[in-house]
Amino acid sequence: MIDAHCHLQFKAFENDYDAVIKDAFANDVTAIINTGTQLSSSRSAVDFAQKYDNLYAIVGVHPHHADKIQHHPEVVEASEGVADVKQEPHNVDPDYWLHELEKHTKHPKVLAIGEIGMDYYSYQSNGIVEPKLQREIFVAQIELAHKAKLPLQIHNRQAGEDVIAVLKQNKHLLLNNPGMFHCFAGSKEVLIDALNLGFSIGFDGNSTRLPCRSLPNSHRLIGLSLKQMLRILLRFRIAENVMNRNMLHLLHASLQNVLASPMRNSWNRQTKMSILCLPS
Fewer CB under 10 Å: which end of the chain, C or N? Predict the structure, then answer.
């Protein structure tokens, strides 16, 4: 069992991440992939990967941070940790963040660029980041992934058509196995376009609804996304793997009518992506 998307470097885990990681590995989790959302959390994801065997990193800038990354690249939101003010450069080069990410792509345990994409949800902290700026940051990271020969982990929230448009415009930069859509949320048309581009699809609480039910098995990723799917049950804490081990049997049973074959763990070392995602 592989956790293909988590944020163990976030503030919620600052006091118990070590115990969570050890519990996961003691309960049938074979690998954990920790995902960055901005420069600082990407750096931390790499640090975690260096500290633990079978823990890997994905580095990138979430579209929610596109309005800060060029001029305040070390700014961190409260939920994601504490900013390292010593790292904040003077007279910031607008491409500083991109050069820093590129350094991380050379690390052998960095598996992809993400989570990147577009997001039209209005956040309390900064509303909706200007779409043109989101697109600029998104494309820069697609170009970086192409240069580093890494797949993408895509974030899309209420912006499916524009995400697909950017990916189609840059199709020549995508790998043959371009990566995954994390926690897919979109129309059937967006789903079909993503599949036609070669992406695997991560789905969560929407697993029994269309369009996810029409997915081919080879492009499915299964996940538990806490904030949206288990908010009440787990009180805003990301589900720990021990609990997920106990829940796996229930999840498996509930998906029998969706999946043509039992859930199985498969680690594709060529594309460096997992096809089973638990939890996150």
Answer: N
Q: Is residue 280 part of a domain?
A: no
For 270, the token pair is 């060529």
State the pLDDT at residue 214: 54
Task: Identify the band that residue 224 occupies on the pLDDT scale cut at 50, 70 and 90.
Answer: very low
Asked whether residue 279 is domain-assigned, the answer is no
The verdict on residue 114 lying in a domain is: yes
CB 178 within 8 Å of CB 113:
no
Question: Above 70 in pLDDT, residue 238?
Answer: no
Over 90: is that where the pLDDT of 47 sits? yes
| Domains held by the chain: number | 1
Local confidence band at 117 (pLDDT 50, 70, 90 cut-offs) = very high
Give residue 269's domain range. 2-274
d(CA 150, CA 156): 19
Question: Global pTM?
Answer: 0.77
Residue 197: which CATH number?
A: 3.20.20.140
The sign one gets for the Cα dihedral 263, 277, 142, 206 is positive
Which residue type does 212 have?
Answer: C
Contact assessment for residue 145 and residue 152, using Cβ atoms and an 8 Å cutoff: yes
Distance set, CA 125 to CA 76, 78, 228 (Å): 12, 10, 18
- Please tell me the predicted confidence (pLDDT) of residue 201: 82
Kindly provide the residue ranges of all beta strands, DSSP E only, lying in 13-151, ordered along the sequence.
Answer: 31-35, 55-59, 110-119
Q: Does 115 sit behind a cis peptide bond, omega within 30 degrees of 0 on the bond before it?
A: yes
Tokens 């070590």: give the residue.
18
